[in-house]
C-alpha cells in the first residue's frame, strides 16, 4: 500500500535519498481510481527499495503547487529531491514499473 503524502510531509520527502514516486489523485477522478490499485501493487513490490506515495490534490495544495500539478492522475518520480520523470494519465503496471526501474 502506498504511503500518504501531505503538505506537512513535503520537506521530509524532498530530503529523502533514492527514488520516490508520488501519485497525485482525487476521490472524484475516474482515471485516478483506475490507476490506484496499480500504484498500491507497485508500492508493495518495491517496499524497502522505492518509496511510493499518494497525494490527494484536494487536500494538499502546497505539494501540488510545488510540482505544478495541473492534471490528474499525475505521477512524478523524484531522485534525491529532484524530479527525474513524470507521467500524466493512466498507465499499465508494466509501464510504471519500467519507469521505476529506469530511474532507480
Structure characterization notes:
This protein has 104 residues and is an alpha/beta fold. The chain has one domain (3-103): Glutaredoxin. It has four helices and five strands, in the order βαβαβαββα. The chain has helices spanning 10-14, 30-45, 61-67, 93-103; strands at residues 3-4, 19-25, 51-56, 74-79, 82-88. The mean pLDDT is 95.
Outline the fold blueprint:
Elements: E1 3-4, H1 10-14, E2 19-25, H2 30-45, E3 51-56, H3 61-67, E4 74-79, E5 82-88, H4 93-103
Parallel strand pairs: 1-3, 2-3
Antiparallel strand pairs: 2-4, 4-5
Sketch the major β-sheet: 5 strands, mixed
* Helical amount: 25-40%
Q: Report how far the terminal alpha carbons are from each other.
A: 19 Å
The number of distinct helices, counting runs of at least 4 residues, comes to: 4
Instruction: Give me the CATH architecture, please.
Output: 3-Layer(aba) Sandwich
CATH superfamily: Glutaredoxin
